[in-house]
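Entry:
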Amino acid sequence: MECGVTMNQKSSVLSHITAGFTAVLVGYTSSVVIIIQAATASGASASQIESWLLALGITMGVTSIGYSWYYKMPILMAWSTPGAAILVSSASQYSLPALVAAFAVTGLLIFVTGLISPLSKALQHIPSPLATAMLAAILLPFCVKAIEPVMTMPIIFGAMFSAYLVSKRFVPKYTMLILLLIGLFFAFQLDEAALSASALTLAKPNWVTPQFDLSAILNISIPLYIVTMLSQNLPGIAMMRSYHYQAPVKPILLGSGIINLLSAPFGGFSLNLAAISAALCMTEDVDRDKNVRYKAVLWAGGFYLVAGILASSVVALFVSLPLQITHMLAGFALLGTLLMCLQTAFQSDDLREPALLTFLVTLSGVSLLGISSTLWGLLVGGLYVFIMGKRKSG
């Protein structure tokens, strides 16, 4: 009897470790390249990019472990991949100190949202189709760039696209890992020296003094805040509820907001609830007892910490990839998110036209009165909803 219990305990521990590792692996392989692109677009040096990944890894690890241990629930934290996509498209317009200040303001906004309950409720009243239409317009260029290498690297594109189709059919959880391995293989074939093995080194934090810029706050902080809340925190809360966990919303927003604020000078641009990857730690496959599934997130937090500490090796690996392979990895990683955004944006008959306007204005890239197309898209779509609503009620 004791032997059976011991075997069951070992099996449970193994499933917790596997689930935690898989959740982190899926998160990193699907979007770390986008994080590096965002940092590069901001003008960050190699050491500063390492600092970004170090700050993100440490904050995600500490908060995942802390929240999950304290509340005995699987509360997995993550960075905002859609938020990183916003930075890739807009960061080059601002200095790194201005961006760091914008990250801090985003953290402050999240903290205030947790502090003032009516604010979080008001945010939920922003029509979801408008927010997802804005996000779809930001993501579309990434996905288009994933197809462009068919002209310059047809063999590599064919191999990666075929692998994408096959893996999505049979092992969807590991699609991005398979694509990454294939990408690394071809990168090595193109340039053996580029991916030569190097000794593991520890990442070091790199402080950037914030420099507040109103334009950066309007065009980076606010869109990053809205996208983080609507595409990360709210779905993350919904995901937990779908598995019968009552997420401690206020403590999560307060804690993640203040940590985001404090880590911003080191590159911590976003800290929020995970949604898709979090589900890997909540299913019955992790443990039949839902009350101990939080242990999978404790392991995930540990893997986050390791990934953050070894950020220099992660950066060296991804920076060495040819640009076309990087574009394919980023584009394929975002296809699912783009599809979800387009479906949500245009599923409502009443909001289809304002969503289309939001999508087009955001995609246009126009900038007027110091406000970028990202925010203009939301404003135009919201104004259309307001006017049409008044006309109908009149």
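The radius of gyration is 21 Å.
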